[in-house]
Amino acid sequence: MNKETATKNLDNVITKVEGARLRISEHHIVKIIGISKYSTSQDIKTLYEAGQRAFGENKVQDLKQKMEELDDLPIEWHFVGTLQKNKINNLIDLNPTLIHSLDSLELAVELNKKLEAKNKKLSALLQINSAYEETKSGVLPEVAVEVYKQILELCPNIVLKGVMSIGAHVEDEKIIKESFKTTKKIYDELVPFGAKYCSMGMSSDFELAITCGSNMIRVGSTLFKEK
Q: Which end of the chain is more exposed for a tag (fewer CB within 10 A), N or C?
């Protein structure tokens, strides 16, 4: 991907984000995370030079490799994939800005234990399975508020920053919208408990997610497309 394409892709996403966020409020700020899991370090660098600052990887090994290859750039790295327990220590050592995929109390307790042992803290989002899809990770909406509060209480080394969900994997926009609204309602309940981010929306549905209240989107193919 050349500089011109990267700039065009980023401008295109920003324009769409602006249009969607202004439908809510001119004060509604949306953070864009570039999902770089299918992209090279060179493409990330090109997008960085075009102005994109935050990038997310979904495998610990890939995150490590790209962080090392791009360690001269002050990139804000996010971990967005499913976190396997045997990779927790490796991820802690990489110290990402934010983990998007804390998908159970059990995982949180395990992560906290390893963080305590290393005397470190990490920021994370609680993943909610608001679409009730068996293929997706995350806590169910009915227990999300309770689990969030339990993590706050039991896991002092995890700094909870909000919630994340993936929109329903269907064609029907109404169903996708409902899944976003479910997450946003939970987020609103958790704002008094320190929630800052409601991370919803990917390349196919981020405009809809923003109009439903998302303030953080995870965009891959739209940012990294070659033409």
A: C
